[in-house]
Amino acid sequence: MSVWDELVGQDAVVAVLEEAAWAARRVVEGTDGDVASPEDAPTAGDTGTGRSMTHAWLLTGPPGSGRSVAARAFAAALQCTGPVPGCGECAGCRTTLGGTNADVLSVSTDKVQIQIAEARDFVQRAQVSPSQGRWRVIVVEDADRMTERTSNVLLKAIEEPPERTVWLLCAPSPEDMITTIRSRCRHLGLRIPAARAVADLLVRRDGVDPQVAL
């Protein structure tokens, strides 16, 4: 079992996030240098290794691509205490995937827009040091639902992040975010997975008959 199991058809993205999770672990253990600052993040669309861990990520893709799944899996890998980041078995992985990890805040909305008061609230919560000594992770699943004024509240937090805070922003496309935020994030683009990959997941995870899954 692994936190990446449900992120189907995204091998290149998984490879980048796995490498970043290893780099993040080395930072926590004091065996590596600092996390790259947002200004050092690779350009949008870059899936190369570069500075493998950074404070701000932008995960984009159309509905059904798994961008929120990727964000949760990466958050779990950052909190993982197992032998391999993202083991899926340790308390860090299980509580993150289950939505009960105190150091992971997931922000989503059913409204047309994320209100500026809501943005101020999660920005303030991002300033608190992680209780478990690993990472404070803020997952904004509907980052595209912020007006420019609301986005500017988030911008300052991304520009001056606390040492152990990681922002994971999800949106349909890079163009849905204001340029100043986009330029300070490492961008990973996801695509709709192949039907065969989705079918294999349904068979493996839910026991669906292979013929029905297809």
**What share of the residues does DSSP label as strand, in percent?**
5-15%
Main sheet record = 5 strands, parallel
Assign the CATH superfamily: P-loop containing nucleotide triphosphate hydrolases
By oligomeric state, this entry counts as single chain
Task: Provide the fold topology.
Blueprint: H1 11-29, E1 56-60, H2 67-79, H3 91-97, E2 104-107, H4 116-125, E3 136-140, H5 148-159, E4 165-171, H6 179-182, E5 186-189, H7 195-206, H8 210-213
Parallel strand pairs: 1-4, 1-5, 2-3, 3-4
Helix pairs in contact: 1-2, 2-3, 4-5
Quick tags:
5-stranded parallel beta sheet, 8 helices, alpha/beta, 214 residues, Rossmann fold, globular, 5 strands
Description:
There is one protein chain. The chain has 214 residues and is α/β, with parallel strands linked by helices. The chain has one domain: 3-Layer(aba) Sandwich (Rossmann fold). It has a 5-stranded parallel sheet with strand order 2-3-4-1-5, with helices on one face. Strand 3, helix 5 and strand 4 form a beta-alpha-beta unit. Helix 2 packs antiparallel against helix 3. It is globular. About 5% of the residues have low confidence.
